[in-house]
Amino acid sequence: MAFELFIDRGYEETTIDDICAVAEISRSTFFRYFPSKEDVLLDEIAVIGEQLLEALTERPDDESPWLALRRAATPLVSHHDTDPERRLKLIRLVTTTPVLIAHRHQKTASWQKLLRPEVARRLGVDPHDLTDPRPTTLIAAMLGCLDAATEAWAAGDGAAPFAAVLDRAMDSIDPAP
After folding, report:
1. Which helix (H) or strand (E) holds 30?
2. Which of 87, 129, 135, 164 is 20 to 30 Å apart from 152, CA to CA?
3. What is the DSSP string of 36-47?
């Protein structure tokens, strides 16, 4: 419901009261579930981070950390494939609205802490040793590839499979230690 309001009216023009009216809920009920208007759109990012971690820990230990990160990105790929038209609208909204850009980066930045222990383990690094930048660097590179692939996929109107665009982005980096 809120998504359609944002698309029809614009993000900035849609108020929490508008969302509450369409959803037939009170403001207090809204704030019980969402801390902000941004979270209505971007709440799934935290869930995707958890899915990414789960998928990463399930990858074979003999895969390189970089390949394991790419293969673990399957939850993101499947989000793009389930409803590409809706996903394109969401991406365009999120990548053109400054407050949503910032909120999205804040949410995905939380993936750094979430994924770091597993990436460190795969590198043979003590997860608590924050002096080694490699785990954080690999995760940041992967997040950069995800952002670049998402924007490229949207620029191409979703014509190419998202998985192929993500592979192209990630293949442009050679993180071999």
Report:
1. helix 27-33
2. 135
3. SHHHHHHTHHHH
Q: Which residues contact 134 (CB under 8 A, 6 or more apart)?
A: 120, 123, 125, 177
The two tokens of residue 23 are 């959803």
Element (H, E) at 25: none
pLDDT given at position 121:
96
- The tokens for 129 are 């040793």
Query: Which residues, in sequence order, are CB contacts of 108 under 8 Å at separation 6+?
Result: 45, 49, 143, 146
Read off the pLDDT band of 175 (50, 70, 90): low
Are 90 and 101 in contact by the 8 Å Cβ rule? The answer is: no
C-alpha 22, offset from chain centre: 27
Task: Copy the structure tokens of residue 64.
Answer: 């390189």
CA distance 93 to 33: 22
Q: Is 104 exposed, middle or buried (0-12, 13-18, 19+ CB in 10 A)?
A: buried
Burial of 85 (0-12, 13-18, 19+ CB in 10 A): exposed
62-119 confidence digits (pLDDT tens): 999 999 999 999 877 877 777 788 888 888 888 888 988 888 888 888 889 999 999 9
Give the 3-state secondary structure of residue 64: coil
Task: Give the angle 122-128-133 at the CA atoms, nearest 5°.
Answer: 65
